[in-house]
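step=predict obj=Large ribosomal subunit protein uL4 n=209
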Amino acid sequence: MKVAVLDITGKDTGRQVELSSDVFGIEPNNHAIYLDVKQYLANQRQGTHKSKERAEIAGSTRKIKKQKGTGTARAGSIKSGVFRGGGRMFGPRPRDYSFKLNKNLKRLARKSALSIQANDKNLVVIEDFNFESPKTKNFVDVLKALEIETKKSLFVLSNENANVYLSSRNLKKAKVVKASEINTYGVLNANKVVITESSLEGINTNLSK
């Protein structure tokens, strides 16, 4: 699949790049995508939720009423979860939600995500660019030139670029990552995936193993 290379003003440079069919042209595997996205979202969870159980509630330990003869249910502690102010029964406890996935499955999921975006014409290749200093306005100008200022976008760079990253940090709908940091959720969550020309090699290397 050949794609035109644009500059940061949105104009066609007259050059084209060949997208690897092994990365951008495979038959998407929906189950691999599901598992990789599920893992990503699970890893975002802090898992610090906690409610007090009856053993952690401050209160009297005396038996609140006699065992028999009241005509109601037996009750031994005011801290029981059936009473107001008592501990919560089977409440949440701190836990780790993360789980592991096979590396090959994760590669398949990411290739599937890129293939979906490429097939839907949501993938743009641009020349490498840099800013002299970190300015949000510079990044907004790039978004406007590419006509994606109102859309969620993912910019993929070959290497870490502090000026470009800092320029995008205040924009909620734009995200900048390195080629080695691509994940399935980020690719599919974006309306447009903007890939710099030099990062294509890194993507192919990381996902073709």
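step=describe
The helical segments are 21-24, 30-44, 103-119, 136-145, 162-168, 184-189, 199-207.
step=end
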